[in-house]
Amino acid sequence: MSVGLVLVSHSAKLAEGLAEVAAQMAPDVTLVPAGGLPDGGIGTDYEAVAAAVARADSGDGVVLLYDLGSAEMTAELVVESLDDPVAVLADAPFVEGAVAAAVAAQGGTTRDGVVTAAVAAGGTRAQAPEAVPAEAGTEQLDLVLTNEIGLHARPAALLARSVAKLDAEVRVRLGEKEEDARSVLALMALGARKGDRLEISARGAQAGQALQAIKDLAERNFDEPGNVSDTSAR
């Protein structure tokens, strides 16, 4: 089981499309779109959202994300009507928040952790740090991406999930950009493409395990067809 997600939108197509995208990165998470009015028009419907919450609840709680305006009000009314506080709202960007929440839920994060991941997706991005020598105790891995779509969407989610539960701080660098390996949106923001060389560093009790997990993913081309990547650890 995992935390379920309900995507509340004024548009049925928007909610369904976002659920489809997020499902590519979180195949085991229940994502229920709740968009539009019963007649197919633009708007939000209380009964549809309430039914979506019931469908999304597998025992670990539900997080609702919404696009704007009355979608938030409708979602709040549904949550307030529940006898058991199984569902909560996440005040997060609709698209980025849904993706981040789905990846967190896929990794087995608690309901509150899923909300935190969604909210963090809307934070201001910090400027990339200047390159500095690796600190003592830091393990490193260089790899060349050989999968066709590079480090985007599903591959980024796989990488983030592979290190999410490990006791290690993992960073991924491409040129002057460096990001937290646990953040799927940050990894996607690197814009890493096929043929790019990534520098990955890890610190902590499970640093070696984290790098091995990433190396295994790369050698499997992130479960996509393609050539085996050129990897080297040091």
TrEMBL record:
Its EC number is 2.7.1.121. Homodimer. The dihydroxyacetone kinase complex is composed of a homodimer of DhaM, a homodimer of DhaK and the subunit DhaL. GO terms for biological process: glycerol catabolic process; phosphoenolpyruvate-dependent sugar phosphotransferase system. Residues 138-225 form the HPr domain. It holds the Pfam family EIIA-man. PROSITE patterns: PTS_EIIA_TYPE_4 (PS51096), PTS_HPR_DOM (PS51350), PTS_HPR_HIS (PS00369). Keywords: Sugar transport, Transferase, Transport. It catalyses: dihydroxyacetone + phosphoenolpyruvate = dihydroxyacetone phosphate + pyruvate. It is an enzyme of class 2 (transferase). CDD domains: PTS-HPr_like (cd00367). The gene is dhaM. General (non sugar-specific) component of the phosphoenolpyruvate-dependent sugar phosphotransferase system (sugar PTS). This major carbohydrate active-transport system catalyzes the phosphorylation of incoming sugar substrates concomitantly with their translocation across the cell membrane. The phosphoryl group from phosphoenolpyruvate (PEP) is transferred to the phosphoryl carrier protein HPr by enzyme I. Phospho-HPr then transfers it to the PTS EIIA domain. One of its GO terms (cellular component) is membrane. This is Phosphocarrier protein HPr.
